[in-house]
């Protein structure tokens, strides 16, 4: 997600608190928030999939391989 979309989320949040949003702005805010949350989840999943765990016997397991690189819904 690019910085301009994050800035727009913040502008809409400030406007919502100050004076309220129109119906169109509310829908835009909801869509932007959903996109932002999906992006956060995708990044977190990628980080978790790249974690290697060292077992007590010295072997390493990649969590992404172990749990099948499942995509977040």
UniProtKB/TrEMBL annotation:
It comes from the Bacteria. This is DUF896 domain-containing protein. It comes from Petralouisia muris. The lineage of its organism: Bacteria, Bacillati, Bacillota, Clostridia, Lachnospirales.
């Amino acid at each position: 997600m690019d910085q301009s979309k994050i800035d727009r989320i913040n502008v809409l949040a400030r406007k919502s608190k100050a004076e309220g949003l129109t119906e169109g702005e509310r829908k835009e805010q909801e869509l932007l928030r959903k996109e932002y949350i999906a992006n956060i989840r995708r990044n977190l999943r990628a980080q978790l999939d790249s974690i290697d765990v060292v077992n007590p016997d010295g072997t390493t397991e990649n969590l992404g391989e172990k749990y099948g690189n499942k995509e977040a819904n």
